[in-house]
Amino acid sequence: MGQMKFDSSGGNFEGADFEGADLNIASFIFGNLQGANLRNTNLYRAELIQADLTGADLTGADLTDAEVDGANFAAVKGLDTVKGFNTVKGKCKSCGQ
């Protein structure tokens, strides 16, 4: 069996603790990740389209090839430590692109 995709489109994960989780190709389209702990999380090729990451902690996370079109990165912590941020697809809000 191949890789499984974690599909949580539209889910409410406000304040959730995903520290160190492998969320490779996960779908958080329109998801609420406000204040979530995403430290050292693998978000390789994750779908974060229109997701709200306001105040989330992305310190050391991997966003290589993630889709971030319309995602809100206001007050995100650790954005300068995110791996692969130069490869994300789409235009995010408040992310300095």
Mean pLDDT, to the nearest integer, reads 93
| Helical coverage, percent range | under 10%
Q: How far from one another are the termini?
A: 37 Å
Q: The biggest beta sheet, please? A: none
**How many individual β-strands?**
0
User: What is the structural class?
Assistant: little secondary structure
> Rg from C-alpha positions?
12 Å
Total DSSP helices: 0
Instruction: Name the shape in a single word.
Output: globular
Estimate the strand proportion: under 5%
List low-pLDDT spans: none
How would you sum up this structure, described in words?
With 97 residues, this protein is largely without helices or strands. 0% of the residues lie in helices and 0% in strands. It contains no helices and no strands. The N and C termini lie far apart (37 Å).
Features:
97 residues, globular, little secondary structure
Quick structural overview:
The protein is largely without helices or strands. It has no helix or strand. The model has no long low-confidence stretch (mean pLDDT 93).
Spell out the blueprint of helices and strands:
Blueprint: no helix or strand
